[in-house]
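Q:
Just now I want nothing more than another pair of eyes on a protein record. Here is the record:
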Amino acid sequence: MKIRVSNGKQHRDLNLPMQDDELSRVMREMGINDTVPYCTLSAVWNDRNPLVELEGLQVNMDEVNFFAKRMDSLTDYQQDVLSVYVKNRSINGLKDYINLTFSIAGLSLITDFSEVGKVGRQLYMDEFQVLSATDEEKINFIEFAEKTFTEDRVEVYPYGVFVEHGFELQEFYDGINFPMYLYDPEQVTAVVELQGKEGTVEYLYLPTTSCSFDKVKARLGVENYSECMVRAVHNERMPKNLLPSSEDLKDVGQLTAYNELCQTVCRFDDVHMEKLSLAAQFIGAKDHMDMTYIAKQLGDFEVVPSVHNDEEYGKFLVVELDLFDVDELLLPHIDYAGVAADKRSGTLADSGYLEGGFVGAAKERHEYLRQYHGEYSDPLEFSLDDCEAFCLYSPLKGILMPGVECGEQEEELYRYDLTPFESDITEAITAYDCIGEEPRGLMHYFNDSLDVARKVITAIPKIMEHEGELYGVLECMIKEPLTEEELMVLKDYWTAQMSDGWGEGFEQQAIQVEDGELFVSFWSNGDSWSVMTEEELLQSLNQQARMEM
């Protein structure tokens, strides 16, 4: 659904529903930084949308977004029914709107009376939601229609005859805590049911983000996960042997580890899920970080379900996999067990048979355990109290494009020319913000070194003025000092981000300044360009000063 929202100074046109992160980003661009954002609903594009009735009012955008998801689950006919009800009944805002999407049974809008039997069938379906083949033959729908029109509430409107029969507006949503609803079931692997201190319940759909998690905590009225209790873990697509119990998710570190596993496997089909299940069972993985490591290394494994010995495995290799070009007349004489034994010893480091089938691995089992400790994960909660700031610097370069009416040529600007535009560039970086709601910033995309990922908690692009010159900066919060080798890895990553990643996108953003449009590049292929630590920057400036003396 398309709507327009406003904060009194600016407006945005939104197509809902949105992911929580995307909605939060748009709200921040409007200057609304609250975890649960409110703004004015200025316009609704579709007159059939019940939100038309709320135009001009302050609305909870999380409620509007949830309502949009629920509307997506309804047919066009059901949406019309809901719209008519909202227009002609006393409705308590978005709370009742949401509850109505769950309670629509027993409401009908009849626009065609040419066949009374079809009208009766529609009324029956609207009230009971299901119709078996037996009932289809047994029920007299004409009589059902006559009885409904006689005994129930019937009102005539320009857009049809509206009927209430067996309808009750039930409270699924209490105005604070959303009921469980899977908007995109294929992308959800598990649902964690959380209870707050006051007994209220919320649902966390995994994989999740820190943005969605913060919203859940806000609705529960808690600040930290430690204030919550896990009531249940509802499995959607995860193999049973990889599903945690409520006790397994007692602290936020455990939840973060399981969330990363869900992120890793959320796009797995059933075949890959079964392969992961058997691989984890074969390795003996009990820890979610070990399971995540196995999921990321799943190509190391050969899994053949329903094969339980060398004879069956060898026959699978020869007959089904067609591993060898063999005349069919020779098939009864093949030593299938010998073929399997040769394959296992020749190409697999470790292999064996489980109840579910055969599993072979490219490495020994112990080499898949305790190799990964969540270094690449996005913490759902974390503190920077034990971290210190560490920055990388690089020269900025810009191009100023004067307005067409000026008739001037574009001007190349260097770090000393860019200093007057510091505030404009800072605002542009904030507005661009393609990092979104990722709490680790650009470290969210980093996968080059486990040691660097463990030490560097956040990495945020910024600019900084130093002695009258403007530099591009990667501001990091680190747990431990980096070794020389680790520093080179981080420098190479930041260089790649400036040339082909974050920086490539940013340099295409026109920054409106008084003299025209400014384009700023964090990267250059010139010989004088480099990425420097603060110490290296100071050395470079001192050397430059001595040369100029």
User: Anything to note?
Assistant: The mean pLDDT is 92. Residues 395 and 527 are 12 Å apart (CA to CA). Residues 388-548 form one domain. The longest strand covers residues 456-466.
